[in-house]
Fold this sequence. Notes:
Layout: H1 18-39, H2 45-63, H3 71-83, H4 88-102, H5 109-119, H6 121-131, H7 136-156, H8 158-163, H9 171-176, H10 181-185, H11 191-210, H12 222-242, H13 258-266
Helix pairs in contact: 1-3, 1-4, 1-6, 2-4, 4-5, 4-6, 5-7, 6-7, 7-11, 7-12, 11-12, 12-13
Amino acid sequence: MTVDHYENFPVASWLLPARLRGPVAVIYRFAxxxxxxxxxxxxxxxxxxxxxxxxxxxxxxxxxxxxxxxSLFKEVAGIVGAHGLPLQPFRxxxxxxxxxxxxxxxxxxxxxxxYCRRSANPVGxxxxxxxxxxxxxxxxxxxxxxxxxxxxxxxQDVEIDFAKDRIYLPQDEMSAYGVTxxxxxDQRCDRxxxxxxxxxxxxxxxxxxxxxxxxxALPGRAAIEIGATIQGGLxxxxxxxxxxxxxxxxxxMLRWFDWxxxxxxxx
Length: 267
């Protein structure tokens, strides 16, 4: 299965040290291909879960020191061995993608954050392992950034997720603002919807900003990479706010002309 993907944020960009671009690209391919099992095509749920289980089996083989016949996992084994990467973040990603197959609604923000802990935070943690910068504070900053970026993606893609029968907006917060699923189905951007989304956007913005100390903790141009990534998330939120929280008709995206601004802000 080959799927084209729009990405908000740089993947293995020129800002990273050359020696780490390959490992970052492998991590991305692992995450993207596994995510596609959960999201793309017309496969039944059982087949999606079976394919994710096959990735788990390959990780188990790697942990036991047994070689894989799959090119992706040969690359994963290479970067795990060369950089001392833990396997748990890879497993956490698979858990999140499996959850996407079976869980369609989230009762509260704690449930959403638990999903983010497994769907987004593992990538940031793996990057910190590559940089050998895994202090408790750095991990905390990274988790805040990654979870916030996942939230940004959720609020950007409310319509897309709803088409897959998924709603990541916390059900209790929807109720508190008087928002129902009909708002999404009817693409209704009334005062209740705008109030709910303004709250979501401000919370995601605060999480992104709380992770900013991570940038100066990283070496060289990686600090700019993280800074630009944070600014990318903030820019999407800014565009969503300017659109009146109407991602149905004005889905916020980063365009080529946004990147000079993001780099300038990062610097």
